Amino acid sequence: MSIVYFLLLVGVLVVIHELGHFIAAKLLDFKVLRFSLGFGRPLLRTRLGETEYQLGIMPLGGYVRILGEDGGDDVPSSDAVRSFRGKPLWQRLIVVFAGPMANLVFPVIIYFTLFAGHSQLPAAVVGDVLADAPAARAGLAPGDRVETINGEPVRYWEELENAVKDSIGQELRLGLRRGDKSFEKYIAPVEQIVRTRDGGATRQGFIGVTHAPFLPLVGVVDPGSPAAQAGLRTGDLLISIDGESVANWTEVKAKLARNTRRTSLVYLRGRAAPGVSSVHLLEAQFADLVPEIRRSVSGRQRVYTGLEPAEMFVAQVDPGSPAAAAGLRPGDLITALDGEPIDHWMVLDQRLQARPEHTWTLTWQRADGDQVVMRSGELRQRWIEERDEYGHTQTRLAFGAHSDFERGRGELVPIKGRVQYAFEKAMGRSAETVGAMVSGFTEILRGQVPGDSVGGPLMMYRVASVSGHKGWDSFLLMLALISVNLGLINLLPVPVLDGGHLVVFAAEAVRKRPLSLAARARVQYVGLAVVGVITVLALRNDVVRYLLQ
């Protein structure tokens, strides 16, 4: 199927590009001699009216041949006004520009189709609130519904996300509903560092809320605790307490805090399916938890069960990683970073990402026999380069410890005005894609991105194969991305590309006369040389990336 995905990807992109030229030429009454998909000897050929349509043996491209385009055609006097050179300059500009433009418009259609298939979106309802984050300090709680932001109505979670991301340090006025009570809170997002694929940093606002609640997965580090005595262990999923269902850790904490007597728990524990190592079954189990009443130094009573959220328990440590060098092991409970308490893995990750060169002091709890001991170690992350599934090199900060916490499903609401929503999202996503591509091209030209990021047909084959096997949504998204790429490349001011033709036309407009055949030939040779160098570089990168490594 890989070759099918590759041919489909290339074929669709070529058809879209050449159709742009073809339709513009036909609408402006140019005489189109041939419409070809592919180069070389034709596999299929037919003629409809004055135009010959063919399928070439080499699928990596195509062309539309217009009478008089290359200057070497014998143009009958009867067709002179329909020849390429016989048309006004503005019409020639439209025909040349129409190909790249078709590639830039095509993603809008793809994105519209994908977004139009959505009937629901995550609602602007808080699933969980991270401890000590701006939202927690403002008093937000799980279940709060955000109805307005700075007076503007809000329905979807993405609207809240976008407002927060773009408002670092700027106070937001949130209109909230909790049950039948409406109220307002003022929250100023703090800065959050997000790492890009090349290891760079982008900054966005953060208030410490999630849409999907953290599932009530438990962790047990104290082997002598009531939880351990009741048979509970790290990774068990609580589903009810004293007959009342629980959906998140906030509910678990509230129910356990007010119950000082024997508590009946129902939980799910995973086990491997017989004979199928990749499948895990969840079995319902029961436990009676008898909490202990402990007194703090100040004499205040508290209920102790030994149950902790599983989020900060280490499930896996990569061998040779900074986490392993610091002394972390699976089962450890991370409690602090540089002496500051850590309650959420997301917060841990953000702090580590923000200061990549810093040497941290990591603190954790570990079961040692029948006791719990405190451990600490120095942690210094390191940059590593790795290839993703497409063969692209990406740079990331390596910590090396992983957690198995999971999130549930947040509330969904129907989309109002699906057609309008799909169109607005399609236009926005297309603009973002074009912007990202332009930025990427600029970085390559400035030398800020290494030349080995350029890929050729083997990269196209790999990208088509991987995205195709993931499913049609993934394939269509990749098709949109490469279509934008193709459209922008063709607009580069390089002779033999559409952008080069546009530059020549602009020069002719300034000179008020066409270039001579000799001058046009020299320009073409320069263009061929530039394209040849890029092609050699792309092929070299393909060989190194996919055949030698």
TrEMBL record:
<feature type="domain" description="PDZ">
    <location>
        <begin position="190"/>
        <end position="271"/>
    </location>
</feature>
<keyword id="KW-0812">Transmembrane</keyword>
<dbReference type="InterPro" id="IPR041489">
    <property type="entry name" value="PDZ_6"/>
</dbReference>
<dbReference type="GO" id="GO:0004222">
    <property type="term" value="F:metalloendopeptidase activity"/>
</dbReference>
<dbReference type="GO" id="GO:0006508">
    <property type="term" value="P:proteolysis"/>
</dbReference>
<feature type="domain" description="PDZ">
    <location>
        <begin position="112"/>
        <end position="173"/>
    </location>
</feature>
<comment type="similarity">
    <text>Belongs to the peptidase M50B family.</text>
</comment>
<dbReference type="InterPro" id="IPR036034">
    <property type="entry name" value="PDZ_sf"/>
</dbReference>
<feature type="transmembrane region" description="Helical">
    <location>
        <begin position="6"/>
        <end position="28"/>
    </location>
</feature>
<keyword id="KW-0862">Zinc</keyword>
<feature type="transmembrane region" description="Helical">
    <location>
        <begin position="475"/>
        <end position="497"/>
    </location>
</feature>
<keyword id="KW-0482">Metalloprotease</keyword>
<dbReference type="Pfam" id="PF02163">
    <property type="entry name" value="Peptidase_M50"/>
</dbReference>
<keyword id="KW-0378">Hydrolase</keyword>
<feature type="domain" description="PDZ">
    <location>
        <begin position="290"/>
        <end position="342"/>
    </location>
</feature>
<keyword id="KW-0645">Protease</keyword>
<keyword id="KW-1133">Transmembrane helix</keyword>
<keyword id="KW-0472">Membrane</keyword>
<dbReference type="GO" id="GO:0016020">
    <property type="term" value="C:membrane"/>
</dbReference>
<feature type="transmembrane region" description="Helical">
    <location>
        <begin position="93"/>
        <end position="114"/>
    </location>
</feature>
<dbReference type="InterPro" id="IPR004387">
    <property type="entry name" value="Pept_M50_Zn"/>
</dbReference>
<protein>
    <submittedName>
        <fullName>Membrane-associated zinc metalloprotease</fullName>
    </submittedName>
</protein>
<dbReference type="Pfam" id="PF17820">
    <property type="entry name" value="PDZ_6"/>
</dbReference>
<feature type="transmembrane region" description="Helical">
    <location>
        <begin position="517"/>
        <end position="539"/>
    </location>
</feature>
<dbReference type="InterPro" id="IPR008915">
    <property type="entry name" value="Peptidase_M50"/>
</dbReference>
<dbReference type="InterPro" id="IPR001478">
    <property type="entry name" value="PDZ"/>
</dbReference>
